[in-house]
Write a structure and sequence with these properties.
Length: 285
């Protein structure tokens, strides 16, 4: 099978996990009714909780996670492949994992990916983001088996680290997911160019379901969930409102793009640059 219909569910997640499950489940059903074979949801889809103390208090262990259980049951009911973009998983100690789950059409967990790159930044929107204060970074790239070929799994800030995407593509990924909760400021500046760049560099479909709108504590996310083709075309864009987008994709386009520009096989080993020497100051200056 090379052709499938992909969906991105764009959400405005709230603080309460039960509210999010109630709000998002009908959107997943809508995507299924529109013929989607593979449905994706955004980062922190189960709980958008900016306060560290509350996030730690409300997070659950994977084995008893109510959001994970609800979405697994829904995938089973709808017989669809479902990417739970990410949910907060309680770990031993005082940290969480920002973890993405690929769920098969029988509700079984096919693959897990814990976000590697932590969003520790100050982007100029009045907020300071220190993801590493709450979350333990992942340490392993993940390639998952699907009926359409290998799927690479990433999350949000990972999109700024092209080596991860190249590693996944060179390992065989023709599709790479990048569920996100991109800030409004960084989204307006960088979202589309980063999505298209990762697709073009790797000759891969990039599928990025995103959070949108204003959340708890005034946090604002950009929206614009996108499905991008291996040649860089944006096949679908959700804009700024919650909702569902779909696109039919053909994995044969991966081979076509990589055949035109086979850069994944053109890597060369090179020496790191030496430190630049200070330029001499001209006399009289």
């Amino acid at each position: 099978m090379s052709k499938l219909t992909v969906a991105c569910v764009q959400t405005n997640s709230k603080r309460d996990p039960a509210d999010n499950v109630a709000e998002i489940s009908p959107m997943i059903r809508e995507a299924s009714a529109r013929g989607a074979d593979f449905i994706t949801t955004p980062e922190i889809v189960g709980m958008f909780e900016p306060k560290r103390s509350l996030a730690l208090e409300k997070a659950e262990l994977e084995d008893s996670h109510t959001v994970l259980a609800a979405f697994r049951a829904l995938a089973d009911e709808l017989s669809c492949w479902l990417l739970i973009g990410s949910i907060s998983i309680k770990l031993d100690g005082d940290k969480l994992s920002n973890r993405s789950f690929l769920v098969g059409p029988d509700g079984a967990i096919v693959a897990r990916y814990s976000k590697i790159h932590m969003f520790d930044v100050q982007v100029g929107d009045g907020a300071t983001y220190r993801e590493s204060h709450t979350y333990e970074p992942g340490t392993e790239a993940v390639l998952a088996a699907t009926p359409w070929g290998p799927l690479g799994m990433t999350i949000c800030y990972d999109i700024r680290f092209p080596a991860l995407y190249r590693t996944l593509a060179q390992a065989g990924a023709g599709m790479i997911t990048a569920p996100a909760a991109f800030t409004k400021v960084t989204g307006q500046a960088h979202w589309h160019v980063l999505q298209r760049a990762r697709a073009i560099e790797n000759g891969a479909f990039i599928i990025s379901a995103a959070q949108t709108g204003t959340h708890a504590e005034g946090r604002r996310t950009y929206g614009h969930s996108v499905i991008v083709a291996p040649w860089g075309e944006v096949l679908a864009d959700a804009g700024e409102a919650p909702g569902v987008i779909t696109a039919e994709i053909d994995l044969a386009d991966v081979a076509k793009a990589r055949g035109k520009v086979p850069s994944l096989s053109h890597d060369r080993v090179f020496a790191a640059p030496r430190a630049a020497e200070a330029a001499p100051v001209a006399a009289g200056e």
